[in-house]
Amino acid sequence: MPSSSETPVRPGPETPAAGPPLAPAPLTRGTAPAAAAEAAGWQPRIIAFCCQYCAYSAADMAGSMRLQYPPEVEIVLLPCTGRFDVILALKAFERGADGVYVAGCLEGNCHFLDGNVRARKRVGLLKKELAAVGFEPERVEMYNLSASQGPRFAEIAREFTRRVSGLGPSPAGGGGQGGL
């Protein structure tokens, strides 16, 4: 215990701190947020909303064929992409997703007549709204595929993950709190 004559001195403007002074991190112009995030070991979190009849079956086929696609893609099963709502995507971003895509039946072949057409309109609206608040609209996409297109599903997952990796972490942050 220090005596009254040995009161500890706190570093202040007149007293130097022990050790080298802390310098601010250098700012480099043009450094992409994706490059900084990648250097820190960041991996994108992708949520794929898939209809059960085509896209989910295609994902299942990709797995059965042992096709590789990024483990960062989390599949959420929907009865039809017509059930997709903008709120689902916003919740995904809020909970840490860096990108969201909707995958449904081929246009004209929806098992619920026009669910995929309605989903495409909602995705278009979502892209416009995200752009209006400063998000990159490239973080959201709509794809159409049939149940027999397992290789195409794997290709979409890889391509979308590369795209989101190039954008860097989501501006929403979200803290990666886990699934929906």
Fold blueprint:
Elements: H1 33-39, E1 46-51, H2 55-64, E2 73-78, H3 86-94, E3 99-104, H4 115-132, E4 140-144, H5 150-167
Parallel strand pairs: 1-2, 1-3, 3-4
Overall description:
Helix content is 34%, strand content 13%. By secondary structure, the protein is an alpha/beta fold. Helix 2 (55-64) packs across helix 5 (150-167).
Provide a concise account of the structure shown.
The protein is built from 5 helices and 4 strands, in the order αβαβαβαβα. With 180 residues, it is an alpha/beta fold. It has a 4-stranded parallel beta sheet, sandwiched between helices.
What attributes characterize this protein structure?
180 residues; alpha/beta; Rossmann fold
CATH class category label of the domain at 43-167: Alpha Beta
Q: Which residues sit in consecutive blocks of at least 5 with pLDDT less than 50?
A: 8-31
Largest sheet: 4 strands, parallel
**What proportion strand?**
5-15%
Secondary structural class: alpha/beta
Rg calculated over all Cα atoms: 23 Å
The ordered H/E elements are: HEHEHEHEH
Number of helical segments with 4 or more residues: 5
What is the CATH homologous superfamily assignment of the domain at 43-167? Lumazine/riboflavin synthase
Helix content: 25-40%
Q: Based on CA inertia axes, which overall geometry fits?
A: globular
CATH architecture of the domain at 43-167: 3-Layer(aba) Sandwich
Mean pLDDT: 84
Widest β-sheet, arrangement of strands: 2-1-3-4
- The count of β-strands is 4
CATH topology of the domain at 43-167: the name is Rossmann fold
Termini, distance in Å? 54 Å
